[in-house]
Structures are given as C-alpha cells and as structure tokens.
Amino acid sequence: MNPLRVCIVTGASRGIGRACAIRLARDFSDVVIVARNGDALAATAESVDAAGAQALAVAIDLKDLAAPRAAVDRTLSKCGGIDALVNVAGAVPQSDLLTMTDDEWNEGLALKLHGARRLALAAWDALKSSGGSIVFTSGATAYAPTAALGAVATINAAIIALSKAFSERGLVDGIQVNTIVPGPVMTDRRRTMLQKYAARKQLPFDTAVESFARETGISGFGLPEDIATPVAFAVSPEAQWMTGTALRIDGGEAKSA
Q: DSSP per residue over 216-248, as a string?
C-alpha cells in the first residue's frame, strides 16, 4: 500500500499548481486542491480523479487571514491527516520598481508569501504527526533581480529564506521542507507577459517568444509538467534526506546559484 495518503496543492486551478495536482494523483490517495476559481478547480478535480486519486476541491482565497486554517481543517475533517503540502498559489504584480504601489506590494505579499506561510503553520502539527513534507514555490528572479521585476524578485527571495527557516524547525519536528525555483514556464501568466513584450518590441508573438529566449539566454520555455515532476520527487520517500534545499529548474536562466 502506498504510504503517501493526503497532499494539499494550492494554486491548483491552472498552470504549475494544476500540473502538480494531476502528477501527485499518481502518488497520493487524496489530493486536496485549493484555489479561488471554483469552476477551474472543478476541472482540475476531474483530472485528478482520472489520474487515480480522490480529489477534494476547496475554493477559498488564501489571502484571507482565516482561509489557511479553514483549508487545513476541511482537509483533516475529510481525509484524516496531511502528508504533504505544496504551496504554488501566488501571483505578484509585474510592475516596475519605481512605479509599483503599496497596494500592489501588499497584494503580492498577501498570497504568495503570507498565504503560504499561514498554510504551513496551520498544517504543521498534522505534518509533524505524519513526518510529512512541505514545498514552497519561489522563482528564478530571486537570483537575478531587475528593476522591471523588482517586487517579483524580492518576494521570491523572501520565500526561499522563509522555506529555509521552516526547514530548520522541520529538522526538530520531523518535517521535510524544500523550495522549488521555477524559471520561464509557459503558463497563462507567462503568455500575458510575452504578449506585452511582443507589443513593446512590435513583434509577432511567436517571434517575440524566440527573441525573449535569446535575450535571456535560456534553452527554451518549460511546461508546467516540467515543474510537477521534481515537485513529486521532493515530497516522495526517495527524497527524505533532502531538506532546506532550493531546487532551481529554469532552463539555464539564472547564471549563478
């Protein structure tokens, strides 16, 4: 019998979160999927069920102070425990450092940093009981900040630090904590960014995609599934000795660790 039972995946309505939920359905008996968009979450639930796990959809906004505790309580009520938590949810406004407002900063911090932090705290006791795992999701901009993406880079760097801090406590409590650091993955958000890039450069979209890849020196754009596979490893028994690690998966975007 598979020892992995219950996994929570946030941001599961689309992109990397959705891909992680579907991939983890092969390893866990129950996958709790969390996102704000209930309709999109229902579509993910169907795919999770088809992949072999039982999906529990929790449509909730993790920016709300009480939402992380509510998501964990519902998971424990329905599933009886938690073996892994995969924090993916979080979009940071892609505004220039000199023009980004306080409201935009607070919006970016509220979900990606504080939502993940509160969820980890809410799930901590259950994960301690199961000897479970947590994955935080950062981004390769943490290693190469630019003014154009100053907030994205800053919040991603903070997530790496937060995860490392949690991993130290996890050594005491028997909880494995790691960070996944994706690079340029072709999600809906990435397509929107590239559309703006194409308009700014006055290029057709496909040409802009190639131009951006050349400018940033990457081998190409990844797919959400390219991130889901290492996430699955990070919460697997095979990775039990890996903790406090920031695993960069970016096609060579970051030129230094």
A: HT-S--B-HHHHHHHHHHHTSGGGTT--S-EEE
Look at strands 30-35 and 246-249 and give their pairing.
Answer: unpaired
Structure tokens at 1: 């019998």
Q: What's the rounded Cα separation, in Å, for the pair 131 and 114?
A: 23
| Local structure of 85: helix, strand or coil | strand
Q: Which residue has the tokens 């209930």?
A: 38
pTM: 0.91
Contact 171, 237 (CB under 8 A): no
CA 7 from centre of chain: 13
Q: Please compute, for residue 179, the number of CA atoms within 13 A of its CA located in the half-sphere on the CB side.
A: 28
Which residue's structure tokens are 């979009």?
A: 91
- Residue with token string 């050349």: 214
Name the pLDDT band for 81 (thresholds 50, 70, 90): very high
Q: Which domain holds residue 193?
A: 186-221
Residue 257: its pLDDT value, please? Answer: 55
* pLDDT at residue 1 in the model: 40
The answer to whether residues 228 and 196 belong to one domain is: no
What is the number of H-type helices and E-type strands within the chain?
A: 9, 7
Indicate if 143 and 193 belong to the same structural domain.
Answer: no
- Sheet with 84-87: list strands edge to edge: 54-59, 30-35, 6-10, 84-87, 133-137, 176-182, 246-249
Residue 257 counted as domain residue? no
Domain count, the chain: 2
The H-or-E segment that residue 8 falls in is strand 6-10
pLDDT at 216 over 90: no
